[in-house]
Amino acid sequence: MSEKLILIDGHSILNRAFYGVPDLTNAEGIHTNAMYGFLNILFKFLDEEKPDYITVAFDLSAPTFRHKVFDGYKGTRKPMQPELKQQVPLMKELLKAMNITVVEQEGYEADDILGTIAKESAAKGIDVSIVSGDRDLLQLADEHIKIRIPKTKKGVTEVEDYYPSDVFNLYGVTPHEFIDVKALMGDTSDNIPGAPGVGPKTASAIIQKYHSLDNVFEHLCELKPPKAKISITENVEQIKMSRFLSEIKIDVPIDYKVEDSKAGDFFNENSYELFKKYNFKNMLKKFENTDIIAKDPECYEYFKKISDFADVENVFNKAVDIAGGIEKIGLSIVRENELIAVGITLSDTEIYYIPVSGFVTESYLADRLSDVVSVASNRNIASANIKDYLDIFEKDKINGYPLVSEKAFIDTAIAAYLLHPSNESYDYESLGREFLSLTYPSKTELLGKLSINKAVNEAEDNLIKYACLSSYAYYKCADKITEQLKSENMYELFETIEMPLIFVLFEMQQQGISVDKQALVDYSKVLGTKISVLEKEIYEAAGEEFNINSPKQLGVILFERLGMPNGKKTKSGYSTAADVLEKLAPDYPVVSKILEYRQLAKLKSTYADGLTQYISEDGRIHGTFNQTITATGRISSTEPNLQNIPIRMEMGKAIRKVFVPKDGFVFLDADYSQIELRILAHMSGDEKLIEAYNSSADIHRATAAQVFGVPLEEVTDEQRRNAKAVNFGIIYGMSSFGLSQDLSISRKEAKEYIERYFASYPTIKTFIDGLVSDAKEKGYSLTMYNRRREIPEIKSSNFMQRSFGERVAMNAPIQGTAADIIKLAMINVYNALKEHNLRSRLILQVHDELLVETAEDEVDTVKQIMLDGMKNAVSLKVPLEVDLKEGKDWLEAH
DNA sequence: TTAATCACG
DNA sequence: ACGTACGTGATTAAC
Questions:
Q1: In the list A68, A162, A598, A888, which could disulfide-bond A147, CB 3.0-4.6 Å?
Q2: A494-519 pLDDT, tens digit each
Q3: A646 beta carbon < 7 A from strand C?
Q4: In this predicted model, what pLDDT tens digit does every residue of A749-758 receive, in sequence order?
Q5: Long-range contacts: A635-639, Cβ < 8 Å, 24+?
Q6: pLDDT tens figures, A227-259
Q7: C1’ C11 / CA A530, Å
Q8: Nucleotides of strand C under 7 angstroms from a protein beta carbon
Q9: What is annotated about its quaternary structure and interactions (predicted)?
């Protein structure tokens, strides 16, 4: 077996990776997608070929000998995108860290280096594979040199391999003749002229016949077709030059010895650091069998399962001692329906797994955990997703509220969320990576698809690792996260808003909301009947039966069978979205029916039928409120989503009616009036807007009066509507296109509205410009309470991405501040209800709205509590107005 | 699993 | 010239 060398065309592969991999950035905002893609391709070839040697060649930006011959060489090439350009030096650094030879040579291109090394190595009897995206390299193919071109099809990388025979089969010429083909046909991307009018077909036909340019020139008069004959005859010198430009050098003077480019030792400490820095998570696995990572979880040796009752007692006694002081413990609860085990870390060397078994019963464990929690008041208990486990610590309660102090905990997931609200996960694995620079095995790696209950029996060792490791990660991260929150001025946000909010959300989830199941079932039937009537009518109009729920089938019916004028919109065909259909509705009655069908189908599937499955035995829906999902700081609601229950459409309102208070209670529902615009007024300090809020009840009317220069009472409905849309636009990050869509007007008109608005409110203009430039400078935006949102897109060179970043920079501080304020209000209301010892409970939040299930005899008190809690959550330069209503169902109360 | 659609603020 | 309003989650169809 002869030895193998892999040669990689650095720029070509990096370029290919850049366009093939969606934009990625690491925590510092460095773009990493091209590097990531490059490495993927690299590893693929390494795995496949297991080469003895490896080398990567790069171009230098300096002019090469080809530029000296032809000034316009590569002259039409666009400059490299900055996101790609910044990755080039980093990629070289990465390769060097992996002990991969990087070659570049002034005056020459990577192709020439590759050619030289390939031929020299092949001469030494080494088998060479050249990896490139560029077909120009095919001329280098020979019996010992294979050209390998990776292609990405549907996310899967496939490779086209070229030996000389493959080149011949495809192009009918030998690799060497390929140079002459290119000389004739030219190359637009390199700006090589060739013979004008001669394309790839003609060029290869000619070379197939004559085999070399010299021979072609000798037979000029017999050339066919006539067009090529003329072109070639007239451009002999240009073709010769083109050939010179096209031929890859194989004798570049370089200081390179293949023996010095041994493949191996890719995964070392240097490369590990860089992989971590660039957040190449799944590639870190490659380091697993090296001693770099093997030594990482040094905590493993201290993991200990404890079942002996006396030992367990000792651990908890010690935990109580620690948690009652100022030191921390790490806590991980393992639960699936029932409590199964806890992982608990007392120090670097005391890491325990305590399963429920024998005398260690579930209730014993819960009691002892409560003991630990009840003595803690200095954020001694580091854990994650505390809300999900608060019920365990509920041993002592007052009026139904857990006695546990919020100051007992530090929730690492929530803390990590504040630092990077756009991350997708804040589990122990991510924490380890970010705060400890350690790569822990993930939950999936340890437990796979096993349920916890199964894992207890089938993979206990891994379950022990999981429980111990996560508690250890919380323990180790807590101080670092705290430190970082403090240095970023976010600790106050964490302490005064997010941590207390956990308890509010917990209580809301516990309470749930009562739903009239029978009403829901009845309504589902009504909807079902209406839907089948519409269905029949639609089939009749269409002339055939089809699945109306399938946008694909519907598109075919509407735009092909019924021949409606179509605007192709989506990737995979016609758009049948509501705004498209609404334009067609006046001309085609069936379209209105489809819209109605869609509306009813949605109501039935998502709400009437969808909600019933969430009704618990107590007749209530206990949804989940998530505190670490949104990029802006809002909370989100799942299983079910109680924040998108219908209200706008008439048919949908019936759904709201099924949400009812329990016997002896009523709903009190309060919502902020235009909180986001008020925040805008406050943050910008715009006197006119502030004045408008201080004097007028109708801000959109006031805006219209200001913008159109008419007295308040003369504002037309249309003017008010437009002003309202512009106000929304401001909050969303104004764009003329968006506004024009919303108002169904031209972009030009929309632009005029915006200009008029900014002319009327110059301070607002200055303010939002400031938001954008601040975000551009810092890479993130901030709310009034220092909530951060990272906006890497704002530095993109891609217009669309950058524009998006700019809109986010305008919106996030406003939407985020509103989120901060209502969170404060929730805490206020929760605390007041608790302090007054009331039976009434806060049960829902819908972004600017709070719903309290109120005992009938507490209505007056609660009204006051809600108004106070919401209006006085913060003092702005404008009043915070709250609309409060009482009702026997959610529709009536809203 | 992803794309399209639509419910809410 | 680029092609969009900001933030979510559930359902369905179709790969």
A1: A162
A2: 999 999 999 999 999 999 999 999 99
A3: no
A4: 999 999 999 9
A5: A635/A505, A635/A819, A635/A823, A635/A845, A639/A614
A6: 888 999 999 899 999 999 999 999 999 999 999
A7: 19
A8: 1-14
A9: Single-chain monomer with multiple functions.
